Target: Lactate dehydrogenase
Amino acid sequence: AKITAYGVRPNERPYFDRLNHDHFEMTYVADLLTHANADQARGADGVLVRGNCVVDRENLSRFSKWGIRAVFTRSVGVNHIDLAAAAEFGIQIARVPGYSPYAVAELALTLGLSLFRHVDAAVQQTRQGDFRVPASYFSRELHTATVGIIGAGRIGMAEARLYRGLGAQVMAYTPHPKVADRQVVTFGDRATVLGHSDIVSVHVPYIPGENDQSLDQHFLAQMKPQAVLVNTARGELADPAAILHALDAGQLGGYGADVVTHETQLIGQDFGQVATVPDAAVRQLLAHPRVMVTPHMGSFTEPALEDMIKVSYQNFREWWATGRVTNGVSVRTH
Ligand code: COI
Model:
């Protein structure tokens, strides 16, 4: 079978080739899927995308016309896919429900610690030749601090374990806590977790129309004053105006994010300077001295990449062998 895979960076290709035990006929496209390069999938039996690929009605309609019945993503998140349109066109969607959770967890930890110890601000300062140590860099130590995990799934719990290893207390809020996880974290309702935590890290799926901008004024007001917020999940979960306001009002200590809004027009591109980044809210975040943004690179690690590719190939193998796929995704029903 023929698969067109989008968003495959040059260093990823050897992994795709090495793990291709089914000898799928691969076409690699380095760029993420857009309207302009959808035709690279013409003639393929299946399409493999990642986050920030444009899998909207328009592209799904094209794929359907070309006889493509399987559009799979190697991401955990599926918010970039129009599931209703896929159902209409009879296109099967599948995802990778989990890859090495340490990929995202380690980055979240790094962002959290950098803001907690004011490392980013200090480095920006010494780059200007300024070696003063302002009172604002005075810090607590992690072993006396509490970390709050919002969303105790695979990634959230991996981060909880990392923080526990560094001596922090870890609390977590999640809709369905697992009994075994109580050995690692103290579960509490959201307000309690936010009220106790010096670093809050969010690991929940973004469900369009359901939890847009849920990291809002109300959420931030429940946080401990001067605590740090980390979002490595999805930019759409955050309300940038509320975050900027909380930072400037002295309520929020720092914001670290591996994700921003409207990523499809940003990720993978070099704008040369902040002023030409085509999103006002993102520009404002980037310009703030207590905001750290990375370009959605949490999953860009060797173990995560291997897992993503292995499970994606498994998904295609199962689909073409049985007409079903265990990791299939359909429109959420409530
Ligand atoms: C996901 O797996 O959901 C991600 O965010 C990573 C993806 C963009 C490759």
Summary: Residues 50-52, 75-77, 296, 299 surround 2-OXO-4-methylpentanoic acid (CB under 6 Å). The chain has eleven helices and 13 strands. The mean pLDDT is 97.
